[in-house]
Amino acid sequence: MRKTISATGLLLVLCVALFDFPAFADAYHYNDNLVGERAMGMGGAFTALSNEISGAYYNPAGLIGIDDDYISLSLSIYQFRSQTVKDYRGGKSLTSNSINIIPSSLGTVYSFGDHRWGFSIMVPEYNDVTMDFHDTESVPALHANRNTKAIEYMAGPSLSFFINSKFSVGATLYGYYRNDKDYISVLRESENVFKHDITSSDKKMIGIMPVFGVLYKPWDVFSLGISLRAGLQIYGSATFSTTHTTNALGLKPVVFEEQNKVNAQEFPIVARTGFAFKIWKGNTTTFDIIFADPIIYRSAGTVAELEPTFNFAVGIEQLISSLWSLRAGFYTDFTSAPGIDISRPNPPPHIDLLGGTLGVGIDGAFTTTTVGLNGAYGTGHSFQNAKILGVEEYYIGVFFGGSFRYHTEDEIDALKRWFDIDLEEEERERERERERRKERRNYKYKKERSSEKETDSP
């Protein structure tokens, strides 16, 4: 009986440890998923541009830079994420993986006079994580499964106004919805005594999230953008249920527990400052600084005083021709979690990430298309099984974006003429290049013939 109770108590400790282990779809990172067609290719450094529908998220004042009425869609077609807790138990590592399809943004923009209005839907976070851990060599044996799904939706209208030729202001009012679901199954067996715990949680949060922005463009080669985003929770709920099953003597074979709680969560205030430069012909270089203020995080028994967090992003776009452009970006995704303090219950993991993007854009008269790659890697620590363990995390994904512009008949005629002229100029330039190559070949041939004649002469 003593062995049975001891094994059961140890199993409960392990169950709690597994339950409190946060998947990487957590609230400790504010820059997990980039949104927007052009913005994704530039590493999210878009506050000083914001001239696509994702500007409603980065800086709504930049929507004034959209010349045409249009509709846009961008998404991550495929994303693989992995997190590994090293030497979790018996020398074995605990690995969590996910494969996701993420619809990151969808929206439309229209003009009224010199101003713009639009409506957008953003999905800044989506993760569906699976974890499997099996240890049959240690005593007692342990089998654990976990599935965690987290998704955020933000949808709402935007307005952008010209103040004068250099200033514009804008605002977006998002409705906010977040849903976190967690399912954990832990089976432990020793000397024909088993205990199986199944724990699930379902947390929902509804709120509003206004975004305010200013864009200052004193010259064609430079612009400065500033935006501020905050959030207010309107409703939150959390349901936790646990089923305990065992064949241990003296314990009830099946126990079911369920709790309903208020899901009270704070939103950080996020301030973005961005700069955009045109350093040489066809070039646009951007730089963003993102600050999130400290908040108190409370969830599933975890209470953490999150720290103020700075993140950075750098992007570059180079026009190859009137239609083609190359884009690249670098960004940080530093955690807001403090250093691990083992004196506090369930301290959150501390993992900093560095990421990069690379993309190709095609800009036509009526459509734009962007394809590219996005990936990040980082290391850190997690408190598990009463000890601090090393953690490694990375993700890589493929993104795609496109938009369609609406034009009047006069605009269509003008665009056709412009593209015809542009194509004619490109053809003339190719013809000039062919003539130059021909002249170089003729010159080389004449020079060789002259050299041969000098050699043959007595």
Structural overview:
A hairpin with a 5-residue loop joins strand 10 and strand 11 (283-292). With 458 residues, this protein is an alpha+beta fold. The relative contact order is 0.16. The strands form two sheets. The chain has a 14-stranded antiparallel barrel with strand order 1-2-3-4-5-6-7-10-11-14-15-16-17-18. The protein has a two-stranded antiparallel sheet with strand order 12-13. Residues 1-25 have low confidence and may be disordered. It contains four helices and 18 strands. It is globular. 17% of the residues lie in helices and 58% in strands.
Write a concise synopsis of the structure shown.
This protein has 458 residues and is of the alpha+beta class. Helix content is 17%, strand content 58%. The longest helix is centred in the C-terminal third of the chain and has 48 residues, at 409-456.
Overall SS class: alpha+beta
Q: What fraction, in percent, of the residue positions are helical?
A: 10-25%
How far from one another are the termini?
Answer: 116 Å
Q: Give the CA-based shape.
A: globular
For the report, how would you describe the main beta sheet?
A: 14 strands, antiparallel, barrel
Number of strands: 18
Strand adjacency order, main sheet: 1-2-3-4-5-6-7-10-11-14-15-16-17-18
Query: Runs with pLDDT <50, length 5+?
Result: 1-25
Radius of gyration computed on alpha carbons:
29 Å
Number of helices: 4
Q: Mean of residue pLDDT? A: 84
The succession of helices and strands, N to C, reads HHHEEEEEEEEEEEEEEEEEEH
* DSSP strand content: over 45%
